[in-house]
């Protein structure tokens, strides 16, 4: 099994588990009890992305899990063999399944279930189980997605300074 490749500027909280073919970009963070398990296929996490407490990222043997830059993956969310575009937010407890593609600047609501092979357009608000596009995000809402990621960037830098 391959070993993880984690940038030096990444904050990994105690209890986070990162194994296998996992690449994590600069200034990203992996919080308490999150699991990134790249044992079947690669997991790639971009820069300035936060993987919050108890989130799980895994893959099938058919497809990697790819998470873009400036993404927020909420507490206890599950990403499985999917792609998440830059500056999106995956809400707490949401599940995104195999070969789903989440566009850029999307908000996937808490508890949503994005079914396999679903394609979500850029800038969408997505809710429900099964998940459906509710409407397009406003510019203000898109800016808030970026602010959420920046807030976690700040928190992770503070946590690294305390070490």
UniProtKB/TrEMBL annotation:
Q: In terms of domain of life, where is this protein from? A: Bacteria
InterPro entries registered for this protein in UniProt: Hexapep, LbH_gamma_CA-like, Transf_Hexapept/Carb_Anhydrase, Trimer_LpxA-like_sf
Q: Which SUPFAM superfamilies match?
A: Trimeric LpxA-like enzymes (SSF51161)
PANTHER family named in the record: DYNACTIN SUBUNIT P25, GAMMA CARBONIC ANHYDRASE-LIKE 1, MITOCHONDRIAL-RELATED
Q: What is this protein called?
A: Gamma carbonic anhydrase family protein
| Source organism per UniProt | Candidatus Caccousia avicola
């Amino acid at each position: 099994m391959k070993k993880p490749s984690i940038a030096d500027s990444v904050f990994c909280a105690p209890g986070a588990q990162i194994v296998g073919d996992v690449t994590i970009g600069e200034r990203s963070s992996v919080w308490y009890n999150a699991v990134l398990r790249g044992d079947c296929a690669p997991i790639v996490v971009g820069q300035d992305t936060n993987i919050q407490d108890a989130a799980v990222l895994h893959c099938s043997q058919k497809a990697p899990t790819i998470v873009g830059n400036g993404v927020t993956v909420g507490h206890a969310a599950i990403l499985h063999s999917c792609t998440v575009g830059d500056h999106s937010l995956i809400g707490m407890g949401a599940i995104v399944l195999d070969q789903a593609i989440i566009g850029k600047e999307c908000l996937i609501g808490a508890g949503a279930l994005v079914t396999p092979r679903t394609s979500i357009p850029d800038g969408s608000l997505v809710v429900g189980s099964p998940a459906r596009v509710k409407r397009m995000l406003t510019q203000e809402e898109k800016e808030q997605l970026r602010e959420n990621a920046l807030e976690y960037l700040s928190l992770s830098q503070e946590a690294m300074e305390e070490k």
